[in-house]
Each structure stands twice: as structure tokens, then as C-alpha cells.
Amino acid sequence: MIVVVGAGVVGLASAYALARRGLPVCVLERHARPGLETSTHNSGVVHAGLYHPQQSLKTRLCHDGRERLYSFCQRHRVPHVKCGKLIVAGPGEEGDLIDLEKGAAANGVRLEPLTATEVRRREPRIHAAAALWSGETGWVEAEAFVRALLDEVVRLEGIVLFGTPIAGVEHAPGDSLVVVTPRERIEAETVINAAGLFADDVSALAGGDRFTIYPCRGEYAELAQKARGLINGLVYPVPHASGHGLGVHLTRTLQGAVWIGPTIRYQEGKNDYEQNRLPLQDFLEPTRQLLPEVTLDDLRLAGSGIRAKLHPPTERFADFLIGRDTRVPALVHAAGIDSPGLTASLAIGEYVAGLILRA
Description:
The chain is of the alpha+beta class. The chain has two domains: 2-74 and 142-211 and 316-357, 3-Layer(bba) Sandwich (FAD/NAD(P)-binding domain); 85-135 and 214-309, D-Amino Acid Oxidase, Chain A, domain 2 (2-Layer Sandwich). Helices cover 26% and strands 26% of the residues. The protein has helices spanning 9-20, 57-75, 94-106, 116-122, 142-155, 199-205, 284-288, 341-357, and strands spanning 2-5, 25-28, 45-46, 80-81, 85-89, 112-115, 130-134, 138-140, 159-161, 168-171, 177-180, 185-188, 190-193, 214-223, 234-237, 249-252, 258-261, 265-266, 299-309, 321-324, 331-335. Helix 1 packs parallel to helix 5 (142-155). The longest helix has 19 residues, at 57-75. The protein is elongated, with a radius of gyration of 21 Å. It starts with a strand and ends with a helix. The relative contact order is 0.21.
């Protein structure tokens, strides 16, 4: 039996990849439903793979996963759209666009340069001195994707146990592990650690490698219904080398909502989505940098999410941690899966399955 800890997109994608190969899989999820944490608390953007180092897992698995995701969503009727996105620069930021275009080209992604006039044709209300167009970018309804993955795992005779936290991990003869829950003991030849924000705790529980997950909250506002027509698609600011993340961006969903965010703030609590939420006023200026005519009356507070980062706020990049534990060979980590984890999830599942099958 292969036990997967966590029924987010990464855990379910790993279980799906293994179950497709006829391997027995049991997914353990502490919540009553799948994907209740990072998997569905995000923008739902399908990324093109522009921003990270060329040979990083984040770039490689994003490219592979993007195509797998579009194909999966089409086959399983998951709401999605390959809509492209604008990456816009204000006056004086044109050099940042050039740097981004060069970096994307190194990653094998072609971006189309747009003048201010061409931007207005696509997004008449957006303020930009220049922009890049990413045609491979899209959007997926994350909750529907999670449900479709769950349905496939179950259809392939995988077992999924909800409301099942891990109480312990014991070592058994032959390098196998016994996963202890409040209701059962499950002997596993391999345990996949896809526990998201709690992946470091699961590794410690199993006596595995030590690493730290840094919870990083992202908060959202949204445009009021009367203002939703101000934007047609996805609009991002050009990212700056001095900052974390991709900046507060505008995401139009297939239902017509327009999300503004996410912000970025490291915090202590892994379950704290609401304490000390930003006031609505804090979203006004970042939004007006893209949509100058927006007023405070056009904004409404929306949800929040917490990223599972592998680097502290003093550092700028950490790659996905995907591999066998050096101390406990029966433990395979799929940890630190922040953006572009949703896009890459199906490729991550294949990567994890490959690690197990090569053992």
C-alpha cells in the first residue's frame, strides 16, 4: 500500500498517477473535504512558466503540468479557459518588461510585446506604458479540478479517508512504515508527504529530514458587481526584483468575478486566515496602478490563502522539494509547493510516481 498524506491537488495528483498504474493507494486527509487549504485558496491562474530559473523544478514541471492540466480539464469538463494575460508596465518600468521577456525566452516561453495603444485595444481601462502578452496563461476553477481528481482516484479504486489526521508514523521491518491515525494503523511500503503547510511536521513525525515550511498569507479583494466590466481578463503588474511574489494582480473568473490580489505577508500561524486582515483601503492603490478609475466604493473584501513556502522572508527563491527522504527511504516528499503548484500538480504527480516506480 502507498499512503498519501494530504488530499490537496498535489496529493490527489500523486494518487491519480499511481492508481492509473494499478498501484494500491490510500489518501489520508484531516479535513472533511479535499483541497480546503492552499489548493483552492489561490487565484486559479494556469501559469506559462515565465518567472523561475530555467532548470528549476518549478519551471520544468510548470511547463509539463500546464499542458497536462488543459488536457485533463477538457476531458473531465472542468471549467477553465486559456485566455492569456497582460503583464503591464507603468512609465519607467519598460526595462523590467525587457528583462522579463528575456527570462521567459530562456525558459522557452514567447511573450508578445504590446504598445500602450495595443494594450487599450485589449483592455481599454488598463493604464500601461507598455505590456507583454502571455498567450499560454489561463484560468481554472480550482475546486472543480480538485473534485475531478478525487473522482478519478476513486474510480481507479484508490481509497480516500477524510477526517483522518495522522497521529504517528512508526518504522516497521523491511524499511516500511506504519501510519497511525485515530482509527487505524496502515502499513505502507511508501508514504508520500503532500501535507502542504504541515509537510515539515509530517517529516518530523516520521523521523525524516528537517526542513521548515513558512506560512505566507495572501489576501484578496474583489471588484463590486457594478465595476466588473472594467476588465476583460487577467492583468498582472511587471514583477520587481526587490519584491516577493508577482504583485497584486487582477483575475477575472469564468463566473465574471474579478479578484484583486494576493498580497504577501509571512506569519506564524498555519491556520490563521483572518486575524489582522488588511483593511479594504490597502487594496485601492495597487488596484489603481492598473485601473486608475477605480474608487474605494468599487472594492469589496474577499478571501485569503496561505502559501507553503520553503524560504524565509530574507530570501527570494526556493524550489519545490520533491524526492526521497535521506533518512527514511520509504518517505517521499512533495513539499514547499507554492506557485506554480496548481499548474504543475499533474506533472508533480507523475514525477512522484516515477520516483516510486524506479525504487
